[in-house]
Structure formats: C-alpha cells, structure tokens
C-alpha cells in the first residue's frame, strides 16, 4: 500500500549539524588560502551544528579554492569528499531558464510565448489568464501564479505518481490546475512560484519533444563537464555515497533522509529544483555564469545570458523568508540581484533548499568571481552559516 506523505513530513520545495578534514583534490592548485578553507569550514560546521559543508571559489574561470568537510550523516563517522554530491534545490531554476534561453535562440520559443500557445493542444480549457502567461513571466515569478499553497502541494503529491512518466505527470498536474485564474498582486508582481517553473519546463519539453531531465544532462551537465551532476536525491539508492539531507522534525529531532521519494521534492516538479552535484561541478556552472558568456562552452550567447541575469521585476521585502527563497532585491530569470552590506555592488545570487539541504551562490560578473556553498542540512542555522561563508570568501578574493 502506498503511504502518502503528510503536510508535516513531506519535503517542501525551496522556491527553500568535530569533524574530519577532507583534503583538497589535487585537480586544483593548493594555495595557502585553499588549505585554510578546510580549517575555516570546519569551524563554521561546528559553530552551526552542520553535518557537512562545502564551498568553492571561481576566479576568471578557474577554481582557486574548494573544500568539503564533515560527515555524510549527522552523528556518524562517514567523511565527505571533495567529489561528494550536494543538493542545490531551487538553484536549479537558473539552469531551467538557460535551457529556455537556448530554445529562444533556436527560434523554438520566444520570451513572450504564451502558455496556451505552446501547451493549449495538450491542456484544453485552461483559464484565459493562465493561457496568457508568458515564458518570461513564468521564469521571473511575475505571471500571477501563486507560491506553493496546500492546493498546489496536494497536486505535487498526487497518488498517481507511480502510474505515469514525469512528462505525463506534469501534463496531468497542469490539467488538474488549469481552471484557476491567476492575478498579479498589487505592488510588486513577484510571487515565488515553483509551479510557474514546472510549466516553463513543460513548454521546453513540448517544443523539443524531449523530457526536461534529458535536456539538462545533454545541454547543461555534459557541455560543462559536470560529471557528478544528477537529478533527484543525491545518494545512490541503497548506498550512503553522498551527504544525505536531514529533516528537522517538529520536536527538534533530526532524521537523515537517505534515499527514495521522501529524500527530495516530488520529481514531477524537477524543473523548479532537484539537481545535485559536487561543489567542484557546481563551481563550474557558477564560473561559466560569471564570465558573461565570454568563455566556452557556448550554451547561449552573451546577449541571452545578460537577458537571463538582468532584473525583470522587483521583489517585495519579506521578513524571515524561508531558506531557499529570496528576501528582497531584483529578480531576473532564475537569478536574483541583491545588495549585501558586505559588497560594494549588487550581486547575482540565489538560494536553494528542498527542506533537507541548502545551497547558496553569489556571482560578481564585474570581477569574474563566483562563490558557491552547500550543506546537507536545512533551516535558519544552515542559511546563516552559508551566508557567513559567502561573506568571508567574497572579502578574501575581492580585488
């Protein structure tokens, strides 16, 4: 009998503790700063009670420092390695947006392509407001589709999850929600919408005839040589070969989520955030974005990359937003632009969390500098820890 996840234990999308040192991979130059990163991250890990934490810095397209410290399971002695896979949650959104940019360049989509125009033959009878939402609005969270609510969450956790391929499940999800009218709120149109990214992923699938999951591997992971990158829970089924996520229970206890459906968001919403990879491979993605499209491989043109990264909507100020969602600033297509009090210019950034892991990224294209931080623990402490690492490394590597 299939047991359906309950609202208290199901993984919520992120739209969201002394340990063994792990030596730097010999693939990267080992500077004094790189060696110090192991020591620094160990201190952060202990201070904030994290099982594991990893970070990397990319300057001018080269990984200049990277380290991973801690254990794959809280309370156990299973040291992480530099090649271990961490979940990046909603930071996958920038990859989905980049896939859309590729298809715009190829003439298969337009930024103003409408949901009804692309998906209307497969999803008949959708509301006029939903049918009129554009690809760019979906990717900038400004379409009027709301943030996840109980109605939407119930569709993510549908009982027919074991009966269909993911492409068909996404169509069934949209068919079940299609009658809803959408509306832009007063003030900022920004509403952080995982469902919007699912629909954008469906538009990508429709015009290519290829599942989003295949496109991610073929057009993002493979060209960037992200050999550890994958989708879904980061540990191989039946093996603790990656730092697994952890769920904080209502009573404050912690449960390691090893593998299987409960170890990640429902895979039907993969375009909104289910990628995992090593900190080194995540750094490759970050460094490519920091280069303004001037370095290979050519995924999209510099002009399209600029369009993806440029602010399309201002986000309202949010008090104590869930880790994995932006607090304020501007939002482009899968990228936020935020002013930090420790940087002298706004930076490209995003947070990602599937409620069991956390990842953060900042990019300073003007300095061709990118920093990524990942941990296999969720919540406010993990978010604060990752923020401290970003600030420290930005100060260390800024000219």
UniProtKB/TrEMBL annotation:
Protein name per the record: Serine hydrolase
GO MF annotations, alphabetized: hydrolase activity
Record-linked InterPro entries: AmpC-like, Beta-lactam-related, Beta-lactam/transpept-like
Domain Beta-lactamase-related, residue spans: 47-390
Record has Ion transport as a keyword: no
Keywords: Hydrolase, Signal
Pfam families associated with the record: Beta-lactamase
Keyword Repressor appears in the UniProt entry: no
Signal peptide per UniProt: 1-34
């Amino acid at each position: 009998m299939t047991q359906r996840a309950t609202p208290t234990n199901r993984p919520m999308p992120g739209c969201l503790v002394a340990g063994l040192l792990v030596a730097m991979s010999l693939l990267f130059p080992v500077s004094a700063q790189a060696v110090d990163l192991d020591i620094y991250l160990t201190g952060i890990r202990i201070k904030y009670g994290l099982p594991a934490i990893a970070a990397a810095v990319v300057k001018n397209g080269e990984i200049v420092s990277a380290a991973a410290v801690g254990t794959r399971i809280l309370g156990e002695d299973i040291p992480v390695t530099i090649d271990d896979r961490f979940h990046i949650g909603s930071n996958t959104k920038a990859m989905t947006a980049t896939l859309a940019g590729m298809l715009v360049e190829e003439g298969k989509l337009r930024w103003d392509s409408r949901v009804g125009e692309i998906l209307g033959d497969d999803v008949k009878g959708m509301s006029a407001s939903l049918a009129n939402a554009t690809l760019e609005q979906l990717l900038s969270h400004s379409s009027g589709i709301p943030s996840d609510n109980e109605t939407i969450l119930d569709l993510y956790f549908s009982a027919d999850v074991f009966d269909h391929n993911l492409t068909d499940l996404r169509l069934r999800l949209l068919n079940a929600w299609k009658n809803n009218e959408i509306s832009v709120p007063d003030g900022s149109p920004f509403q952080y919408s995982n469902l919007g990214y699912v629909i954008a992923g469906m538009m990508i699938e429709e015009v290519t005839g290829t599942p989003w999951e295949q496109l991610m591997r073929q057009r993002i992971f493979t060209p960037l040589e992200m050999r550890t990158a994958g989708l879904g829970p980061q540990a191989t089924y039946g093996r603790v070969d990656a730092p697994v996520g952890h769920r904080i229970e209502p009573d404050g206890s912690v449960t390691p989520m090893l593998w299987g459906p409960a170890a990640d968001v429902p895979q039907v919403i993969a375009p909104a955030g289910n990628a995992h990879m090593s900190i080194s491979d995540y750094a490759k993605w970050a460094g490519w974005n920091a280069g303004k499209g001037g370095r290979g491989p050519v995924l999209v043109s510099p002009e399209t990359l600029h369009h993806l990264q440029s602010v399309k909507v201002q986000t309202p100020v949010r008090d104590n937003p869930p880790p994995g969602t932006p607090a304020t600033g501007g939002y482009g297509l899968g990228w936020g632009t935020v002013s930090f009090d420790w940087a002298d210019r706004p930076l490209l950034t995003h947070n990602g969390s599937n409620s069991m892991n956390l990842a953060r990224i900042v990019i300073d294209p003007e300095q061709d500098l990118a920093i990524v931080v990942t941990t296999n623990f969720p919540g406010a402490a993990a978010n604060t820890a990752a923020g401290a690492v970003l600030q420290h490394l930005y100060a260390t590597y800024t000219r």
